[in-house]
Amino acid sequence: xxxxxxxxxxxxxxxxxxxxxxxxLDEDTTAIVSLVYAQSEILQKxxxxxxxxxxxxREVMTHLKAIVFVRPTKSxxxxxxxxxxxxxxxxxxxxxxxxxxxxxxxxxxxxxxxEVVQEVQxxxxxxxxxxxxxxxxxxxxxxxxxxxxKWNGVQKLARTCDGLMALMLxxxxxxIIRHQAxxxxxxxxxxxxxxxxxxxxxxxxxxxxxxxxVLLIVDRRDDPVTPCLNQWTYQxxxxxxxxxxxxxxxxxxxxxxxxxxxxxVLSERQDTFYRDNMYKNFGEIGENIKALVNQFQEKQxxxxxxxxxxxxxxxxxSYPEFRAMSGSVSKHVSVSSEINRLLDMWGVFDLSEIEQExxxxxxxxxxxxxxxxxFSNPKLRDIDRVRLVMIYALRYATHKESALSxxxxxxxxxxxAPELRELVMKAQEYAxxxxxGRSSDLFEEKTGVLGKFKKMRGGVAGMDNVFxxxxxxxVRLLEDVKKNSLKEAxxxxxxxxxxxxxxxxxxxxxxxxxxxxxxxxxxxNLANPGMxxxxxxxxxxxxxxxxxxxxxxxxxxxxxxxxxxxxxxxx
Length: 571
Description:
Layout: H1 3-15, E1 21-25, H2 27-34, H3 39-43, E2 47-52, E3 61-70, H4 74-85, E4 89-96, H5 102-111, E5 117-122, E6 128-131, E7 134-136, E8 143-144, E9 147-151, H6 154-170, E10 176-179, H7 184-200, E11 214-219, H8 234-241, E12 248-250, E13 263-265, H9 272-277, H10 282-304, H11 309-345, H12 348-360, H13 364-374, H14 382-396, H15 404-413, H16 418-431, H17 463-466, H18 473-482, E14 504-510, H19 515-527, E15 532-537, H20 543-551, H21 556-563
Parallel strand pairs: 1-2, 1-3, 3-4, 4-5, 7-15, 10-11, 11-14, 14-15
Antiparallel strand pairs: 6-7, 8-9, 12-13
């Protein structure tokens, strides 16, 4: 059940046509394809070039075949109609990433006056495959700012429904749907998707299934803490501190970075080191990068020994591997160096300790004292002071000895901008206990202080205790599903219930998921080979993009300008 393989197989079928060709994409399908295929790989399939369908300045090349892959949106259909009326290529094979309406198909047929269209097909590749077990749609701001029980516009709801339908069809699954009962957003999505499945059950969803897979739709607001925390595994750290945008990482702000490393790609499909280390903690990463450098240095020494024709032949044969290894070393050394620089510059070690104490232990008095103490750290950014108060507010706003007003007052005295301070109130509006969408008691009562554990500095042992005490709510959800103890009153079925845990489980977060939760899924799948889990979300969040999710009205542009960036946002 590899969601990225399903997309890649579709794209491979498209571009395997004989002869030289050009591939026309829209903005959505450009992102879909780029996550599963490197441009160099596509060019090896006799694809002469890749172009946007709405680029009207393209050259006329009638000797080429056009492979068109677009979403069946109004803008893409209009661009395709204009293309067919004045064709620039000899013939067109058209593929849609989802179902096309009969009226749209008729519109294209009328536009094909020159009879250049050879093929029209629906390939259900309408989602962003961030990895084998991670699916997103690049949507932020799901909640209507004026009504927390409604979707923020029908387009976002429709796009999410279309994407989930395409995912199920790509994997040939007809799921049983469960949803979070307290969330109207989840209930609405579940009803809409169930309606589509029922309508198409005798046609598209006619699969032979030994076990009924389950799609569990949950609300991000039930766990607002996980996207607020600093992370300590490689992939999640990169996204939190630098930002990952569709596998791309910008190092433009890193001091002394060379031009060829200003933009790097972190893809588990193309980069074996990244694939093997993306879920490992920061301490292990440092050691593994050091081992990678040592391995490369040994290769360099061997390549310098060319005393015979046989030596030269061996070097030439290994040269592509040598170049790939050189690029991998440069990339990961640069990324890890930038992470180290930001960790120190922003005081993230001390910050993360208090975050973990706030989210994972119940020592209110000691924790408040540590927060006030940390506020005096000159390295701490204003946005990180706010981040701490947000987490505190989500947990302790109703505590009998709550110090929330004192903490907000301290933010004011420290000169934190009102636009940033407002995030504390926004977090409570978005996901306070009892608000629309949040139903669970997220914080399990635990005692103990982080001082009992060994601190980690610069990638040494002990970080699993110190910096990863918080466990996402997803951990409990997966365990409950595995034990068949997820209560139907809280997570009802849209149809009849299924008996026993499913072999295939899809967990989808309305409001976005995180790379921390992706790691949870990876570890669960390894520990439970009889059950396969895929994670999905409207977006993949770091703290920066989660602010945009909470506001849902464009306001975070001002907040981001005040903190000077700090993340690439969603994917």
